[in-house]
Amino acid sequence: MQGLPPPSEREREDFAKRVNRTLWIRAYVGATVAILLVAVVAVSATLGTTFRVGDLTAVGVFTVLAFITGALESAPQAGIGGSVLFVAHLSAAITTGPIGATIVAFLSSSATQAWRKREPIKLLFNVAQLTLSLLVASSLYVIAGGRLRVATFSNQDFMAYVVLVFGYFTINSASVSGAVAISRGERFSDIWRFGPLSIFAVTVPILALRQAYRDNADLKKANQDLEASHRELLEYTVKQIEARDPYTSGHSRRVAEYARVLAFEAGLSASDVKDVTTAALLHDVGKVYHEFGTLLQKEGRLSPEEKVLLQSHPVRSAELIATISSLRGAVELAVRHHHENYDGTGYPDGLRGESIPIGSRIIMIADTLDAMTTDRPYRSALKFDRVIEEFRRYAGKQFDRRLAELAIKSHAIRRLVGGMSAETLDTISSSPLMRSRPWVRVRAKASGNPAQ
Ligand SMILES: [Fe+2]
Q1: Ligand 1 mean position to 310 CA, how many Å?
Q2: If you measure from the C-alpha of residue 289 to the centroid of ligand 1, how many angstroms do you get, rounded to a whole number?
Q3: Which of 50, 70, 157, 331 could cross-link with 153 by S-S, CB 3.0 to 4.6 Å?
Q4: Has residue 82 got a pLDDT over 70?
């Protein structure tokens, strides 16, 4: 019986080498896993307190993100080429710290490797080396003074982030290159390509991104500061206008409060309630212009030309408000149309019904409510029963019927009117500046409505 020829010397050497490499690979993987376990224990003991239960949501999100990016990644190679997995890993490190990042790396890489149906030894190695890379790098980030869960980076955070990036890519590429070198029987130095060029390629985009973010954040902050001071100036202007006359002192603040309650009770969204309140506070800011000053001070009736001029104040107010970009649109329009009557007889554009912005319809009611419930030189503040009568009488004409009913039935409005009237009475009775305010009387006579 003829058997196989005995293996040649060379075949025996090749076989021995393959066995040898397999043993070395197993030892290498075993060492990687052992180092990972030691690192997990060491980091848990020293940096375990950086993890919070509240981070679990972020851990879940980053795990899913890392799994998706890992699964979509093209054929894996040694080093960092082609992988976007690091985005999810590094984000997890600076958000949840070493423990959270380790969980993310372990779960996501286990799922990715299983999904790719890797051989057990490769699966074990890939999971261990990715988890170890992120565990060590995220620990270095904390040790280097990097803060977790921050919206903006300080210089210290950024330096720590550079350490995190270097640590992550160095460990990742070195461990993979080690495995490749053993399996191919080549020298490690011939495989590992993570040199200065790789470091440059990783850090330059991060530096550029950070600079762009900082510039943008600085610009945004400067704009917000400018807008805030501009808005404060408008509010101050309203106070100055009202300070000319004790009867209007605090008027805009009260109108804003009534408008806020009405907008809320009308079911507007939080952001719309805020817009309506702002518009109500600033609705008469255009009266700061000189031509209105002389009209407001005038004794006796206004001439038809003067009435037309006075009726331009909503437009002038809206123009002033539009100088603040964040108030353009809803707030600007609510102010422009705050003297439109529901039946279309108002000004400046004669809008009718639902075509009048709801903010303007609310301000119309809030403005009139304050006029009726505060003392005037020619009459005392009206009782709430009279206010109800007036609202019902002019519902559908001057006022939105639904909003007028809302104001009548609102307990919050009634409480506010009570509290504010008492406060207003105190202010007025103690004011040495108490005097007549003829334009209010003239307007009331002109419209035939004490509320106008
Ligand atoms: Fe007005």
Answers
A1: 9
A2: 13
A3: 157
A4: no
For residue 399, the cross-strand partners are: 395
* CA of residue 407 to ligand 1 center, whole Å: 19
pTM for this model (two decimals): 0.51
Mean pLDDT lowest among 33-37, 140-144, 149-153, 312-316? 149-153
* 435 found inside a domain: no
Q: Which of 117, 366, 405, 151 is nearest to 261 (CA)?
A: 366
Query: Are 93 and 149 contained in the same domain?
Result: yes
Residue 421 Cα to ligand 1 midpoint, Å, equals 20
My answer on whether 251 and 306 are in the same domain is yes
Same domain, 102 and 245: no
Residues 413 and 420: their CA atoms lie apart, in Å, by 10
Question: Separation of 229 CA from ligand 1 center, angstroms?
Answer: 24
What separation in Å is there between the alpha carbon of 315 and the centre of ligand 1?
10
Question: Domain check: are 174 and 233 in the same one?
Answer: no
Nearby residues of 270 by Cβ (< 8 Å), 6 or more positions away: none
351 alpha carbon to ligand 1 midpoint, in Å? 16
Distance from the alpha carbon of residue 368 to the mean position of ligand 1, in angstroms: 10
Predicted pLDDT at 237: 81
306 CA distance to ligand 1 centroid (A)?
Answer: 15
Average pLDDT, the chain: 81
The rounded distance, in Å, linking the Cα atoms of 58 and 63 is 8
Residues in the chain, how many? 452
Please report the pLDDT score of residue 2 as a whole number: 54
CA of 450 to the centre of ligand 1 (A): 15
376 compared with 37, residue with greater pLDDT = 37
| Cα(432) to centroid(ligand 1), Å | 26
CA of 410 to the centre of ligand 1 (A): 24
In this structure, the answer to whether residues 241 and 306 fall within a common structural domain is yes
Ranking 296-305, 317-326, 443-452 by mean pLDDT, the lowest is 443-452
Average pLDDT over residues 303-310: 91
Q: What is the pLDDT of residue 438?
A: 29
Q: How far is the CA of 225 from the centre of ligand 1 (A)?
A: 28
Do residues 59 and 178 both lie within one domain? yes
Give dist(CA 348, CA 222) in Å, integer.
35
pLDDT (0 to 100) of residue 210: 62
User: Do the Cβ atoms of 28 and 126 come closer than 8 Å?
Assistant: no
- pLDDT per residue over 173-184, tens digit each? 888 888 888 887
What's the gap in Å between 236 CA and the centre of ligand 1? 17
Q: Give me the domain span that covers residue 280.
A: 229-425
**Interacting residues of 140 by C-beta distance below 8 A, sequence separation 6+:** 160, 163, 164, 167
381: left (phi over 0), alpha (psi -120 to 50) or beta: beta
Q: Using one digit for the tens of pLDDT, what is the confidence trace for 225-244?
A: 877 878 888 888 887 777 77
